[in-house]
Amino acid sequence: MKREDIVEKEIPVSQLQVGMHVVRLDRPWEETTFLLQGFILQSEEDVLAVQSQCKTVVIEGRVETALPPLKHSSRRLSQKHKAHRSAPETSLQTSPRSSGRRRVVYINKVDFSHEMETASLSYKEAKATANNIMSGLRLGRALDMNQVRNVVNHCVSSIFRNDNALLLLTKIKNKDEYTAEHSINVSILAAAFGKSLGLLEKEIRNLALCGLLHDVGKVGIENDILNKPGRLTPEEFDIIKRHTTLGRDLLAATAGMADAAVDVAHSHHERVDGKGYPRGLREQQIPLFAQLVGIVDTYDAITSSRIYGKGRSSMEALKIIHGNQNKHFNADLAIKFIRMIGIYPPGSIVEMTNGEVAIVVESHASQKLYPRVLLVRDAGKRPLAAFTEIDLKTAPSDKQGRLYRIAREVPDDTYGIEMKTFIEQGIFNHRPPISGSRSGET
Question: I need a labelling partner for 218 at 20 to 30 A (CA). Which of 7, 78, 158, 404 fits?
Answer without folding.
Answer: 158
